[in-house]
Amino acid sequence: MKKLRVMIMEDDNVLASALAELIEVLGHEIVAVEASESAAIASAAFAKPDLMIVDAQLVEGSGVNAVDAITRAGPVPHFFITGDARSLRMLKPEAIILQKPYFDSDLIRAIALAVGISA
Description:
The chain has five helices and five strands, in the order βαβαβαβαβα. Helix 2 runs parallel beside helix 3. About 45% of the residues lie in helices and about 20% in strands. The chain has about 120 residues and is α/β, with parallel strands linked by helices. The protein has a five-stranded parallel β-sheet with strand order 2-1-3-4-5, with helices on both faces.
C-alpha cells in the first residue's frame, strides 16, 4: 500500500493519539488531527488528505457533517469510527463504518476498503 496522507477527526485526545501512532506505524503520514467539525473542514482544505478517519460524533459538531462539507469539493476516501454503528448505518447506508471498540486488524481492513485495495 502506498504511503497515505491521513487526517483524523476525533475529539478524544487519548484515542486520537493512539490512532495517529498506529497509522504512523503502518507507514502513513498524519497531516491533521482535528476535534471539531469546523476545524476539520478548514484542515482538509489545507492538508488535502488521501484518507480521512472520522469519529461520527464530535463534541463540537459532527464528523458526518464535516465529511459531507469536505467531499462537496471532490471525493476523499474516508471511513467512520463510532460507538453507534446502527444509527450511523441508517444515516449513511453506503458508508464504511468501524464499530468502537475495534482491533488493529479491523482498522487495517477499513483503510484498505476505503482506498480501494484488498487487505
